[in-house]
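Hi all, long-time lurker, first post. I run a small reading group and we've been trying to get comfortable going from sequence to structure in the token notation. Rather than ask abstract questions, I figured I'd post a concrete chain and ask someone more experienced to write out its structure so we can walk through it together at our next meeting. Sequence below, copied exactly:
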Amino acid sequence: MNTKRLAVGVGATAGLVGAVALGAFAFGAAGLKLPEPPSIAIQAAATNDAVDAAPAPTTTAPAEPTAEPVAEPVAEPALELDPTSPKYNPYLTPGDPEYLSEQTRMEWLGEQQVVRACMQEAGFDYLVDPWWIGGQAQPKGLDYETSILWLQALYGGDAGMYDGSAPWEDRGCIGRGEHEAELAREAGTPLTAPIPPIDPARPTQREVVLAYHQLTADCMAEQGFEYRVVGWWQLTDEEHLAGDPARPADLTAAEVDAWNLALYGDAGLGSAYRWEDAGCAGYATHASGQDNMH
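-- Answer (accepted) --
Happy to help. Here is the structure in token form:
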């Protein structure tokens, strides 16, 4: 198992503790509840042209047996093949250098079951939400102190959090998952778990990024600043190295300082962090539901 890929899936949660963190939304599939068919009552009355007759007793025809409604299977979204599209996912597109085979994904999910069981033993919830569609393992809504304890259980403290080469016993639940997965592979029976279907309503990682940037841009515009909405996949190598692509070019030093203050604010660190003090970036993180201190 590629531990770097594993770190991508869970390591992003560490950023939620301090200040700005951006991840993927999780959208639940919406089920349709069909109305119950009404009973059909048929009333018959006997009549006689010559004499009044007592009405025939009312009878109710038995309702036709109805089969339980069968939910239509949710079709996964079609693969977007344009690598510049916000809907493109390199991890799921065969031929892309970053493509993940089904076996690789199944083994990652199998390893995550071990990690999740370990975290539950430590008293924490752990979300097995595939990172290749923008999932995050840390539940939302944790306060700062609980977030720290969650990370310590996951990584085994500072040694495991910052040193991936430390012995597995020192790397918390991540270490246990990697160790058990490695033993299973050596035995010829790799840990696997089924790949869950992708909800078509779930935005891609790129769509999440663009939505975050749009919230930021709207906030900055209210304060009189320009903020470019651009995704990393839309930039050339030179643009990546040229500085913040969202910031307009040719600003003076004073204008850059003012722009940065509007964007990042002056928030405290750790438990002192408040999104209201973190500028437009803090607002966008909170408004998109990606901070951990609601």
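A couple of things your group might point at:
The radius of gyration is 28 Å.
Residues 173 and 211 are 33 Å apart (CA to CA).
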